[in-house]
């Protein structure tokens, strides 16, 4: 051993670095070879951070309804104003065990973590220096094929069943969060409005409802012609003329969620793109006061107050609605 130590001390420094690199590469490989368990990570966001990973939501719903009873720490939230039953979800750093065809699976929810603890990092996209939350699935390597071909698809199927059974329309609004990024938050949405309540020409109401029905059944047509499955409407009028009521009636008629997009709080095109990508299927996207946005942005940049001459523009309250049925 003394001879080895003497030989090591006489070697050039670059040889030391190469040896350390080789050892650091071989040790994980050796450990993985002898470790009988494998791991799958389901991150909350994908590589580009532009869109929430649907698999993360599927796992969260599945574990909350199927496996949460085995966790020591849970979170409770009252999501439906018409029911007294809270929605219980898994808390961070909690582990639950699931079984499938005789195989045991271990799930853990890992919290958001900083990539550079103790360091100051400057990023073009605020808040993206943090690692997103993730679920980690651990299983024995002999169950690898079972997990990939059967277990994970069964989790997705169960998630779809639970979502369809407990579906409730929601109203989403965007606001600034950590790092001043604009993100969606939601509340239950049960508007009382219907087309029967709208004070407008009956023939026009029938035309709109027929147009919406054709849109709902247009998946095959849009796929055939290569067009995005979406529909646009422009609602124009003074405050109190029924634009919000019309949107509520459309949401009830289609059974769609509503996304109310405030462009003033969106700082750049990348943030706007992320917001659009983070919307769901079967949704109505509402952009309010598009006639006044340019003036408000100009005023905001200059730091000036709105002059009286802009009052007429503010009163128009134009809504641009986009009805989306499929992935964009």
TrEMBL record:
<dbReference type="Pfam" id="PF14363">
    <property type="entry name" value="AAA_assoc"/>
</dbReference>
<dbReference type="InterPro" id="IPR050747">
    <property type="entry name" value="Mitochondrial_chaperone_BCS1"/>
</dbReference>
<dbReference type="GO" id="GO:0016887">
    <property type="term" value="F:ATP hydrolysis activity"/>
</dbReference>
<protein>
    <submittedName>
        <fullName>Os12g0472300 protein</fullName>
    </submittedName>
</protein>
<dbReference type="GO" id="GO:0005524">
    <property type="term" value="F:ATP binding"/>
</dbReference>
<dbReference type="InterPro" id="IPR003959">
    <property type="entry name" value="ATPase_AAA_core"/>
</dbReference>
<keyword id="KW-0460">Magnesium</keyword>
<feature type="domain" description="AAA-type ATPase N-terminal">
    <location>
        <begin position="17"/>
        <end position="110"/>
    </location>
</feature>
<dbReference type="Pfam" id="PF00004">
    <property type="entry name" value="AAA"/>
</dbReference>
<dbReference type="InterPro" id="IPR025753">
    <property type="entry name" value="AAA_N_dom"/>
</dbReference>
<dbReference type="InterPro" id="IPR027417">
    <property type="entry name" value="P-loop_NTPase"/>
</dbReference>
<feature type="domain" description="ATPase AAA-type core">
    <location>
        <begin position="234"/>
        <end position="297"/>
    </location>
</feature>
């Amino acid at each position: 051993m003394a001879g080895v130590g003497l030989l090591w001390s006489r070697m050039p420094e670059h040889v030391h670095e190469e040896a350390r690199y080789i050892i650091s590469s071989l040790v994980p490989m050796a450990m993985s070879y002898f470790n009988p368990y494998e791991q799958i990570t389901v991150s909350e966001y994908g590589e580009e951070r532009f869109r929430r990973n649907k698999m993360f939501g599927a796992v969260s719903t599945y574990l909350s309804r199927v496996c949460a009873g085995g966790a020591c720490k849970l979170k409770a939230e009252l999501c439906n104003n018409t029911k007294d039953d809270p929605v219980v979800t898994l808390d961070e750093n909690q582990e639950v065990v699931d079984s499938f065809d005789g195989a045991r699976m271990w799930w853990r929810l890992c919290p958001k973590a900083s990539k550079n603890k103790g360091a100051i990092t400057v990023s073009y996209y605020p808040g993206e220096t943090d690692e997103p939350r993730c679920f980690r699935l651990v299983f024995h390597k002999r169950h690898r094929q079972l997990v990939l071909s059967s277990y994970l698809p069964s989790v997705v199927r169960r998630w779809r069943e639970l979502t369809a059974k407990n579906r409730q329309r929601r109203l989403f609004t965007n606001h600034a969060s950590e790092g001043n990024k604009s993100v969606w938050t939601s509340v239950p949405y049960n508007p009382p409005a219907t087309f029967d309540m709208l004070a407008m020409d009956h023939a026009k109401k029938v035309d709109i409802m027929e147009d919406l029905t054709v849109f709902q059944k247009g998946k095959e047509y849009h796929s055939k012609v290569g067009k995005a499955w979406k529909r646009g409407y422009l609602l124009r009028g003074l405050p109190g003329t029924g634009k919000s009521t019309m949107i509520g009636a459309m949401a009830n008629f289609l059974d769609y969620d509503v996304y109310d997009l405030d462009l003033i709080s969106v700082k750049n095109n990348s943030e706007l793109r992320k917001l659009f990508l983070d919307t769901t299927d079967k949704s109505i996207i509402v952009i309010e006061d598009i006639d006044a946005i340019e003036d408000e942005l100009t005023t905001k940049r200059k730091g000036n107050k709105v002059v009286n001459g802009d009052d007429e523009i503010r009163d128009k309250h134009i809504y641009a609605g986009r009805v989306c049925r499929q992935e964009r």
